[in-house]
Design goal:
With about 70 residues, this protein is mainly beta. It is built from one helix and five strands. Strand 2 and strand 3 form a beta hairpin. The radius of gyration is 13 Å and the shape is globular. The strands form two sheets. Strands 3-2-4 form a three-stranded antiparallel β-sheet, with no helix packed on it.
Amino acid sequence: MICTAGEGWYQEEGKEAVSLVPGMVITIPANVKHWHGAKKDSWFSHISVEVPGEETANEWCEVVTDEEYGK
């Protein structure tokens, strides 16, 4: 994932959130549950590149609650 504009957050399950700014690149390994989105007072634009593989799928998980986001 490449942050192209605005500011955002990226967080893998069980880890601290990472602040995203333009130009930052995040490599997300297969089977890692995570979320990403805009910071509270910003907007966020990004490019995602998915590498083809065998027996792979993209799964959308539960919505991040306001309480989780606020942490």
